């Protein structure tokens, strides 16, 4: 139950902060790098937590989940987040750097640590419940960037990536319904 509360608290804090893409903000490669506005900087800063969290949690679920469907979903989360992260890094090479992320780092670390100590049905349920909450918040962040961002490259990236996030959410909800 504590794991569920932690996932829920983190997901609530994420809305609209979380995303499925994590990046290690790289310094711009050009002296004339495009500076980002506040909404775009917020988007990039918050997305930087997604890949480490999703890959770490996904790898745990790949190894320990009790069903092939949950293990397959976890594998999708790992591979998808790495691919999307690489696409975002390519965009950010031409942008001014933003501060490294700090918000929610501890919450994510706690959730991953909790999953490491869980097994069986409890792990399955917590992982999937967490994925539903995470993907909802992730979609909200991308929608926020699409509606309010000013950088055309990041807006296009968010528009291109949002359908993947919505697919991940639908898959997680289907898994959650199957476990109910």
Folded structure, characterized:
- It is built from seven helices and no strands.
- It has helices spanning 2-14, 38-47, 50-64, 68-92, 105-117, 120-148, 152-179.
- The protein is an all-alpha fold.
- It has a single domain (2-13, 36-179), classed as Ferritin, core subunit, four-helix bundle (Ferritin, Up-down Bundle).
- Residues 1-31 have low confidence and may be disordered.
- It is elongated and about 50 Å long.
In short, what is this structure?
The protein has 180 residues and is an all-alpha fold. Helices cover 74% and strands 0% of the residues.
Features:
disordered N terminus; 180 residues; mainly alpha; 7 helices; Ferritin
Low-confidence stretches: 1-31
Computed Rg: 16 Å
List the helices and strands in order: HHHHHHH
The CATH topology corresponds to: Ferritin
Number of strands: 0
Strand-residue proportion: under 5%
Give the biggest sheet: none
Task: Describe the SSE topology.
Elements: H1 2-14, H2 38-47, H3 50-64, H4 68-92, H5 105-117, H6 120-148, H7 152-179
